[in-house]
Specification:
heterodimer, A: mainly alpha, B: Rossmann fold, Alpha-Beta Plaits, 6-stranded mixed sheet, elongated
């Protein structure tokens, strides 16, 4: 009940914020532009629309996750909106979980709208449905849930600006982490290899959630891989939230 | 009867600066606030007033010591069920309306929906925010936010109301309204603990005060008794004073008597000397125009406490 109240408030705040619509407008513009770009290519229209559509939806989803995510806690501390809330009979973990759920809800709606747009555009160009696009968006959404959890973790002990930079860094490394690992295996010396492998183990492997190319080029996808990715994502989120709660419970709001 | 607020040796260290040096902001504080009283918590900026209030409301965690609110230990979440809190210069969610924010607060106290609606309507009326109730808070003025802050502090019909600098940033009308509300809350049987550095308001409102300087509680008690222990003087005004009487008075007074248009003003140190002066005056045929005891004002006392600590 209390978590729901915080979550709904967070959602309500987010969907009334103009920044969300600014980001969404750019996303729609880019997704729409993919149709124009597609006409320039011969015989590859559908692939371009799907590829560019998924990529833009993912990119702007990340922007939303980071921009709104860092505001979750650090901005509340900075602007002291949290004082009146924490003084009420609510556990701090309830507050944090409520914030997280509210933001995930916001992401669900925005990513959902973008996914449906890409899905519909692909149909108009391709002439048939590509259900795989929805699966790709769903996995991408899971990756965004991780990014949001990273943002919430940083924002429990750091300023909004630093949180944004840290989260962006984790996101970029996370996206490249598959490459990082293969680089470590093939080229690096023993010291560097261990450092890179350590990084791979600690930072989220977001490349696991990128199945867009498979969908676009009609390559087969193993259902076990999808399930493994989902399990990995949920476990990672759980750990991040537990650490964030651990920090938040002990935090002084000066 | 157990005090509404019982603080036992509560203290707080913060780590400050680059080297994270441990600095004591609040020295072990022991203080009790009784049921139904208005307690004024005074001190200059940086004395540790807000730190104390943040400890009581769970925004920061104590380094040592404990406190009980309405008989329940601070560390228990149920201790907050009967407490209302107005933060200093309150700021709330920009994109919520006043009504939505109050509803959120009601939910955090697990109030059922009918009760929430009823209380919200009553509090919007009390704080004169009915017309702005469905506006987003980013359009609220500072005074309106302060009033909404008061409304959210009362949503749970609290037995104890904690207000952090409730008068700061308000215009004279706003301060008057806030004073009236505080007196009304007391009349309803609630206990009020508030911090302030606006002394005239405190003098008018408080049953008891505590004075905090540099993280130490310097003085606690009823306003009259705190001020009465200070050296006070008595001003006696006389007319038709003969030269002989003037000489007598000169011997009794703290300072040479002042000749004023409406008479001679004599400042006397205590009631014994007043007695002697009055007898001499009556015997000499002078007319007594006024006897005014000069109390130390809270402001003077406060300044003395603060400067005393600086020496």
């Amino acid at each position: 009940m209390k978590i729901t109240a915080i979550a709904l408030t967070t959602f309500r705040e987010a969907v009334r914020d103009r920044i969300l619509y600014t980001i969404l407008a750019f996303a729609f513009l880019l997704i729409g532009a993919s149709v124009i770009l597609a006409t320039l290519s011969i015989g590859q229209e559908a692939k371009i629309v799907k590829d560019l559509g998924l990529a833009s939806s993912s990119l702007f989803g990340t922007f939303i996750a980071i921009f709104l995510g860092i505001g979750l806690v650090s901005k509340e501390i900075e602007r002291r909106t949290l004082y009146a809330i924490v003084a009420k009979p609510i556990y701090r973990f309830q507050f944090l979980l409520g914030k997280y759920i509210g933001l995930v809800l916001t992401l669900l709606v925005t990513v959902g709208v973008m996914a449906l747009l890409v899905f519909a555009l692909a149909w108009t160009v391709d002439g048939r449905w590509t259900p795989g696009l929805l699966l790709a968006s769903a996995l991408d959404f899971l990756a965004l849930m991780i990014v949001t959890a990273v943002a919430i973790l940083f924002s429990t002990f750091s300023t909004p600006t630093l949180s944004a930079m840290f989260t962006l860094a984790v996101f970029v490394i996370g996206r490249l982490s598959g490459d990082l690992r293969s680089f470590a295996e093939q080229f690096a010396g023993p010291g560097l290899r261990q450092a890179l492998e350590g990084m791979y183990l600690i930072l989220p492997d977001l490349s696991r959630f990128q199945i867009g190319p498979h969908i676009v080029y009609g390559l087969p996808i193993a259902s076990t891989e999808v399930l493994m990715a989902a399990a990995y994502g949920l476990a990672y989120i759980l750990v991040l939230l537990l650490v964030a709660i651990g920090i938040f419970e002990r935090r002084d709001f000066k | 009867m157990e005090p509404v607020i019982q603080i036992e040796g509560l203290c707080k260290d913060f780590r400050v600066g680059f080297w994270r040096r441990r600095t004591r902001i609040l020295h072990p504080l022991t203080l009790g606030v009784h049921r139904g009283e208005i307690f004024g918590y005074l001190g200059p900026n940086g004395a540790g007033k807000t730190t104390t209030i943040k400890l009581l409301t769970g925004l920061i965690l104590p380094t040592a010591g404990s406190a009980r609110l309405l008989g329940q230990d601070l560390s228990r979440i149920s201790a907050k069920q009967q407490v209302g809190f107005l933060p200093e210069n309150p700021y709330f969610y920009d994109y919520l309306t006043g009504r939505e924010f109050l509803d959120l607060c009601g939910r955090l106290f697990s109030l059922p929906i009918r009760l929430r609606r009823e209380r919200i309507a009553r509090l919007l009326h009390l704080t004169q925010l009915q017309e702005a109730a469905d506006q987003q808070l980013r359009k609220y003025s500072k005074g309106m936010l302060q009033r909404l802050g008061l409304a959210q502090a009362l949503i749970n019909d609290p037995a104890l109301v904690i207000l952090d600098e409730p008068m700061s940033g308000l215009d004279p009308l706003g301060r008057k309204a806030m004073r009236d509300v505080i007196l009304q809350l007391k009349a309803e049987g609630r206990t009020i603990f508030f911090s302030s550095h606006i002394l005239p308001d405190v003098e008018v409102l408080c049953d008891r005060v505590g004075i905090l300087v540099g993280g130490h509680l310097r003085d606690v008690g009823r306003l009259e008794s705190i001020l009465k222990t200070q050296t006070e003087s008595i001003e006696l005004t006389l007319q038709r004073v003969s030269p002989g009487l003037l000489t007598t008075l000169r011997g009794l007074a703290q300072a040479p008597p002042l000749e004023q248009p409406d008479g001679v003003l004599v400042r006397l140190a205590d009631e014994e000397r007043l007695d002697l002066a009055l007898r001499a005056a009556v015997a000499a045929g002078a007319r007594v125009v006024g006897v005014v005891p000069q109390r130390v004002t809270l402001e003077e006392h406060f300044l003395r406490e603060v400067h005393g600590s600086a020496l």
